[in-house]
Amino acid sequence: EERRARANDREYNEKFQYASNCIKTSKYNILTFLPVNLFEQFQEVANTYFLFLLILQLIPQISSLSWFTTIVPLVLVLTITAVKDATDDYFRHKSDNQVNNRQSQVLINGILQQEQWMNVCVGDIIKLENNQFVAADLLLLSSSEPHGLCYIETAELDGETNMKVRQAIPVTSELGDISKLAKFDGEVICEPPNNKLDKFSGTLYWKENKFPLSNQNMLLRGCVLRNTEWCFGLVIFAGPDTKLMQNSGRTKFKRTSIDRLMNTLVLWVEVIRLGHSYFINWDKKMFCMKKRTPAEARTTTLNEELGQVEYIFSDKTGTLTQNIMVFNKCSINGRSYGDVFDVLGHKAELGERPEPVDFSFNPLADKKFLFWDPSLLEAVKIGDPHTHEFFRLLSLCHTVMSEEKNEGELYYKAQSPDEGALVTAARNFGFVFRSRTPKTITVHEMGTAITYQLLAILDFNNIRKRMSVIVRNPEGKIRLYCKGADTILLDRLHHSTQELLNTTMDHLNEYAGEGLRTLVLAYKDLDEEYYEEWAERRLQASLAQDSREDRLASIYEEVENNMMLLGATAIEDKLQQGVPETIALLTLANIKIWVLTGDKQETAVNIGYSCKMLTDDMTEVFIVTGHTVLEVREELRKAREKMMDSSRSVGNGFTYQEKLSSSKLTSVLEAVAGEYALVINGHSLAHALEADMELEFLETACACKAVICCRVTPLQKAQVVELVKKYKKAVTLAIGDGANDVSMIKTAHIGVGISGQEGIQAVLASDYSFSQFKFLQRLLLVHGRWSYLRMCKFLCYFFYKNFAFTMVHFWFGFFCGFSAQTVYDQYFITLYNIVYTSLPVLAMGVFDQDVPEQRSMEYPKLYEPGQLNLLFNKREFFICIAQGIYTSVLMFFIPYGVFADATRDDGTQLADYQSFAVTVATSLVIVVSVQIGLDTGYWTAINHFFIWGSLAVYFAILFAMHSNGLFDMFPNQFRFVGNAQNTLAQPTVWLTIVLTTVVCIMPVVAFRFLRLNLKPDLSDTVRYTQLVRKKQKAQHRCMRRVGRTGSRRSGYAFSHQEGFGELIMSGKNMRLSSLALSSFTTRSSSSWIESLRRKKSDSASSPSGGADKPLKG
Amino acid sequence: MEERPQHRPSRLPDNSALKQQELPAHRLYFTARRVLFVFFTTGIFSLCMGIILILSARSTQEIEINYTRICANCAKLRENASNFDKECTCSIPFNLSGKMMGNIYMYYKLYGFYQNLYRYVRSRSNRQLMGKDIKAVDDCAPFKMSDNKTPIVPCGAIANSMFNDTIILLHNINSSVQIKVPMLKSGLTWWTDKYVKFQNPSSKNLADEFRGTTKPPNWPKPIYDLDKKDPRNNGFLNDDFIVWMRAAAFPTFKKLYGRLNRTHHFIEGLPAGNYSLNITYNFPVTRFHGEKSVVLSTLTWCGGNSLFLGLAYTVTGAITWLASFAMMAIHIMLKNKKMSFFHQ
Q: Could you list the residue ranges forming a coiled coil in this record (chain B) (predicted)?
C-alpha cells in the first residue's frame, strides 16, 4: 500500500495510476446528469409515491382520475428540481475549474513550464514563489533561503497563525538550479494517502543512499509560502490524495428538519427556498465593499434552518479576527500611552480621532504603522530614558529577521504577528532593528547605528511564557532584556519597583479589559563575572545528556530574576468588523456560540474577552487542561459541582435538591444561575470526546454561556459539532474561513464560509458564504428568520388548502355510495394546486414579512420561535388540518343544504352534479384566496397581482373549459360544456358561495383577533406597537457599552513558538552575506530544527511525535 | 470640475426594491376597528339576506305527492323485470286547497337513486349524443353493444336507466268533468344542452340515421320514437331525455317534467280544487328501496321554497353579531391593561 514516486519520471509514475491533481467537488457531468439526477430524485419518497400513483392511474379499472392529474405535477416537480440541481452543480464545476486552472511552474524536460494545477502529476518537480498556494503535497527539495529552509503559513490548514518553518533534507537542498533539478531522479517511498496533517513518514532513495523523510520536509496543499523567494518541491500526493482533501470529507446531502417532516410537496418548497437564496445573494447589506464580495447562498435547501439555529461554532483566526496585530497602547514607567483624548478630556471614540502621529522624522519608519497618541513620540524626542530603554528592549528582544533589499527598505520576517507589531513599533519610534548576525544585533537608535553583541537568547516557550536576550552594548555593559506574561514576570521583579508595579498593574488591567494582548517588559544589568560564570554553567547544561531541558530551565530561571520593570505593551488582535456587537446580538437571540480554534489557549481566551464572549461579569470561567482521562473527568465534574452549588444557593434549595434526586442532570444544569464559560484544550478535548465522557462534557459545556475549545484539530472541530448534533435536537451552524474548518462546516447542519480570503476551501464546502462575520446576524436574524416564518406560513397554508380541497370528497362519499366519484371536474383537480392556488401562496412564501428587518435586529428575541420551532410543529400542523377539515365540512354541507331542495330560477333542477361541482370549486377557490389574503402580512404589488390574477385565471379557465368550442372538438374530454355560464348566472349559487366564504373565514378572523388580544406573541407586539421602540433603544445602548473596569486577569497572549532563538544563534537562517560580517562560530548543536519539531509535536494535541522522529542511518 | 466616473463594483447587488426586499407594501393589521367593522357589517348583511330569503321562500307554494306506495300493485309488478311489456297505470287523486298562482312547474322526484355513482356518471358518450358519430360507444361500459355487437343508441348506464313513467295531471272540475292540465314539454333544459351538447344526426329521417344501432336494453322503444309528433323533441333532442342525462349530484333529486301551459282555465295558475295524477308506472324503484313522487311548485327569483339558505344566513348573521359584541367587550377590557403596560 505504500506509495512510490520517482522524480522527473512520468512514465514510471504513471504505472501506479495515482490520482491527478484535478479536484472534483461537482456531482454530475452532461452525460450522467439525467440518469443520476433522476435516480436521486426518485429516492425521495414523495416522487416515488407519485410515480407509483401514476402507474396505478394508468390502469383504468382502478383509477377514478385520469393519468394527467398526476403526471403534470410530477413532471413539473422533477424538472424544477433538476434545473436547480444543475445550476448548483454548474457553480461547483465553475469553482473546481477555477482551482484546477490555477497556474504553477512545472519542470518538464529540463524546462520550467506553466501548467495548470490539474495537469500536475505525482513525481513532478514544481517551483513555488513567495505568497503562492502550494498546489499539491510536496517534498521540499530546495529553496532560496539558506540550508533549504522555507517558511509557510498553515492557517488555511490548521488555523494556527504563526509561521512554520520547513527544511529540505541536506542532500537535496543543494539542488538550487534547474539543470541540477532536471537530473534529479530520486525515488520516494512513503505512506499511502491519509488525513493526518502533522504526520508523514517516507524514505528518499537517491544515489544508492536512503534518506528518512518526515513532516518537517513536507509542504502541504493549502499552505502558503511566505518570506521565501522560491522553492522547489516534488509532488508526492496530488488532488484528492492530498492531506487537505483527505480532511475535507465527503459532500453530504443536507436536509432541513422540515424536509424530513414532509417530503411531499417538494416543488413549491424548493421554489420558495430558491427565492430566499436569491434574496441572500442580492442583499446589499451583506456585500463587503472592501473585498467586493457579495453574500452567496451556495445551497438552496437550508434557508429555513437559518431561522432555527441554536449553536454556532466559530473559527477564530480569519473569522473573528483579521489576524492583524496592532501596537495599540503601552505603559512606560507608570505612564500609559495610546489613549486619545479630545479637547474636553474624554476618551475619543473611533471616527472622531485626530490625525495619526507623524513619523516623518524617521526615514526608516514603516508607513503603514499608525499610532494616535502624540505624547509618546514627544517622550521619545525629549529623550526620556525610560521610553528609550523601552523601545530599545523591543528592538533587541525578539527573533525577527530583517531584510533590506534596497537602502532603507526594511522588511521584517516575524515568526508571529505579535512580534512583528512590537518590532515595527520600535522601528517607527526611532529604534530601528536593522540587521542581525548570530552574534550581533544592529539597531538604529534615533538615527545612530549601534551594534549590540548578542550573548544569549533565552527562548520563548509555553511554560516560561517569556523570552530574554542578553546583550552587551558598545560601552561593554551587559544587560538582560526580558518580555513576557505579566503573571510570570511580576514575580521576578526587583522589590524596589513595587510602586511602579502597582501603576503598571492598573494599566495592564485596563488593557486586558479592552481585550488587548499584553506583555510586560523588564531588564536587568549583569556584571561581567556573573555573566561569565552563568554562561559557563549554561554551556554545561546544554551539553548535558539527561534532563537537559530542566537544567536549562532552571539556569534561565536563575538569571531572569530581580529584574527592573520597564513597562508593558498592549497589542490589539484586530477583530473583524462588528464582531462583539454581532456576538452580543446573537447571544441575546439565545444562540450559543462556541469558538473552536487551533490557536493557543491564551490567544483564544484573549479573543473571547475582546469579542465579549467572556466577560468579567461571569461567575466563573472553567479551564480544562487535563492530560489524562481522569484529570479531565475530574475537572469537568468540579465545574458541574460549582455550577450546581451556586444555583442551589441562589435558587430555592429545596426544588433543586428534588431535581437532583431525579437524576436529571441535564435539566438542572441548564437551569443553573449565573454565567459560566468553559475553556478546554485540544488534548483534554480528545479525552472528553471519548464515548464514555462525551455526554458529561456536553452537559457541562451546554450549561455554560460560552465555550472555547483551543488547540483543536480540524477533525476535533467536526467531532464537537457532531456531538452537539447527536445529543441536542438543535440546529447547528459552523462558520470558518480556512481549510481547517472544512470538516466542521460540512458536519454542521449549516456551514458558512468566510469568502474574500486567499483560501477558498471553506467557501467551497460551505452552504452560505460572505466575507464578514458580522453578516451572520443578518443572515440569521433577518434572512433566516424570515425564511423560517415564510416556510412555516407556507406549509400551514399548504396543508390547510389541501385538506379543505380533499376532505370534501370524504363528505361527498356519504352521498355517492363511496363510489370514488370526485366532487370536482378532473381539470380542476389537476390545476387546483399548480395554477389556481399556487402563486398567491408562493408570493407569500417568498415576500412575506411580519416585522420590518430593523426590528428583528432590535429585538433578537424574535428569533426564539424558530429555535423552539413554534411556528410549524405537530400542534400547528393539526391546527392547520383542523381548519382545513372545518372548511371542507362547510364547503360541502352548505352547498348540499342549498342544492338538495332548490331549483334554478327557470325551474330546472339546480342539484345536478356538474353545477354542484362548479359551485363547490368556485367557493373553494374564493375561500382559499381570501384565506391567503389574511395570511399575507405584507401585501406587495406582486401579492396583489398573484391573488387577483389567480382568481381571474380561475374564471377564465373555467369558462374556457366549459366553452362550446372545446366541447365540439373533444366532446368526451370536456363534459362540462355550458356549465359555467348556466350555473354562475344563478343568484342562489352566488349566495351560497358568499355564505360559505363568510362562515369559513369569519371564525378565522375572530380567532386571530382574539389571540392578538389575549395572547400576543412578541412579533405581534412589535408589529402593533411603536411605543416599545424607545424601550428597546435603551437596551441597544447597553449592549454596545464596551469594557468594564477593575478585574484581575491577565491579557497575556502570544502566538509564538519555541526554537527560533536557537535558530538565530546558530545562524542557519541567515544569508552568507550577512554572516560574512561576523565571524561565524560553528556551534556544535544543529539541534534547533529538532527542537522546533519537538515543541511542535508537544504542543499539538494529538500525540504524533513518534513518526516524526528522524530515522538514523 | 472634473469628476472621475464612479465605477460600481460589478458584483455589487442591484439596489432595487425587489432585490433588497423593500418593495412598497401594505402591511395587514388586524386592528380592532377594522375587524369589528367587518364583523358588524357582515352581521347586518347576513341578517338582512336571511330575512329576504326566508320571505321569498315562504311566498312560493309546493306540493309533493309520493306515489311509491299508492301505486303498490304497479310497484310489485315492476319488481320482476320480465313484466316489462305489461302496462300498469294508477291514478292518484288529491286536493288543492288553495290556488297556485303563477308559473307552475311539475317535477318528478326520486329518492335513493344514485345518479352520482362514479361508474354511472361516466357511462355515456358525448360524442354519440352530439350526433357526430352515433356509433361512438367507447365510454359507455357496460352498455356499449347489444349481445349481437350492435352499438346501443343512446349508449351507457345513464341513458339505459332513464325515467320513463308518464305523468298526466287532470283537473276535476266537477265529479263528471275532468280536463287534462296542459303541460309544456319544452324549455325544460339548458340552452347549451339542447343546442350544443345534444344534437341529432343531420338527416331528416331519424330512423334511417339510427339504422345499424339498437335501443338500450331497458327501453321499450328506440330513441327516434321518443316523440314522434314533434321532431324538435325527438331523438337526442328529447327534453325528458336531456333532463335525465344531466346527472344529479345527490341520491335524492327532482327533475323538471313539464311546465304549466297557462291558457284558458289555467291562465293564472292552478285553481283550487280536486286533481288527480294519472301515472303510467314503468320505472321500478322498490328494487333499490327507492321512492318516487310528483312535485308541483311555483318559483321566485331565488328558486323554490327551500328555507335552508335563508335560515343559514339568519343564523350566521346572528352569530356574527353576537361574536362582534363579545370581541368588542374583550378588546375594551384588555385595552386598559395594555395601555398601562406600554406606558410603564
A: none
pLDDT of residue A1084: 37
Average pLDDT of the residues in A556-583: 89
Is A460 annotated in a binding site? The answer is yes
Instruction: Using a pLDDT cut of 70, give the percent of chain A over it.
Output: 86
Residue B272 lies in a domain: yes
Report the percentage of chain A scoring pLDDT > 90: 25
Shared-domain flag, residues B53 and B88: no
Task: Return the minimum-mean-pLDDT range out of A160-164, A552-556, B136-140.
Answer: A160-164
Q: Kindly tell me if the per-residue pLDDT of A1028 is higher than 80.
A: no
ipTM value for the complex: 0.94
Please give the average per-residue pLDDT across A451-468, as a whole number: 87
Conformation bin of residue A65: beta by default, left when phi > 0, alpha when psi is -120 to 50: beta
What domains can you pick out in chain A, each with its CATH number? 3-21+120-247 (2.70.150.10), 325-343+355-574 (3.40.1110.10), 788-1015 (no CATH)
Mean pLDDT, residues A521-526: 92
Same domain, B228 and B312: no
Question: Searching chain A, which residue's CA lies closest to the CA of residue B129?
Answer: A971
pLDDT in tens, A202-261: 889 988 888 888 888 899 988 888 888 899 999 999 988 888 887 665 555 555 555 544
The verdict on a CB contact (< 8 Å) between A908 and B115 is no
Helix, strand, coil percentages, rounded to 5, for chain A: 50, 20, 30
* Residue A315 among the catalytic residues: yes
Q: Are residues B122 and B206 in the same domain?
A: yes
Listed in sequence order, the residues at least 6 apart from A191 whose beta carbon sits closer than 8 Å to its beta carbon are: A2, A3, A200, A201, A202
Are B228 and A878 in contact by the 8 Å Cβ rule? The answer is no
Bin A756: left if φ > 0, else alpha if -120 < ψ < 50, else beta.
left
Distance CA A934, CA A913 (A): 31
| Residues A972 and B127 sit within 8 Å (Cβ to Cβ) | yes
Q: Which of residues 881-900 of A touch B (CB under 8 A)?
A: 894, 896-900
Do the chains contact at A991 and B53, CB–CB below 8 Å?
yes
The residue type of B34 is R
Rg value, chain A, Cα: 36
Find the closest chain A residue to B324 by CA distance. A1006
Q: Contact A900/B304, CB-based, under 8 Å? A: no
Q: Determine the residue of chain B that is closest to A982 in CA distance.
A: B190
Nearest CB to A988; choose among B29, B251, B309: B309
Does B259 fall in a domain? Answer: yes
Same domain membership, residue B134 and residue B172: yes
Is the same domain home to B212 and B335? no
| Assigned domain for B92 exists | yes
Per-residue confidence (pLDDT) for residue A483, from 0 to 100: 92
- A85, A137, A158, A315: the catalytic one is A315
- Select the residue of A294, A898, A934 nearest B308 (Cβ to Cβ): A898
Q: Is A1098 known as a binding-site position?
A: no
B27 in contact with chain A, both atoms CB, cutoff 8 A: yes
| B323 closest CB neighbour out of A910, A971, A1006 | A1006
Write the pLDDT tens digit of every residue in B198-233.
Answer: 988 876 788 888 888 899 988 888 888 888 888 888
Per CB-CB distance under 8 Å, the chain B contacts of A987 are: 301-302
> Could you report how far apart the first and last alpha carbons of chain B are, in Å?
57
Please state, rounded to an integer, the average pLDDT across all residues of chain A: 82
Contact with chain B for residue A964, Cβ under 8 A: yes
**Was A740 annotated as part of a binding site?**
yes
Based on the fold, state whether residues B143 and B54 are members of the same structural domain: no
Evaluate whether B66 touches B292 at the Cβ level (below 8 Å). yes
Pairwise pLDDT comparison (A1087 vs A842), residue with the higher score: A842
Where are the alpha helices (H) located in A611-681, listed in sequence order? 629-650, 653-661, 665-670
A599 is in an annotated binding site: yes
Mutate to test the interface with A, among B7, B308, B330, B344 (most CBs of A within 10 A): B308
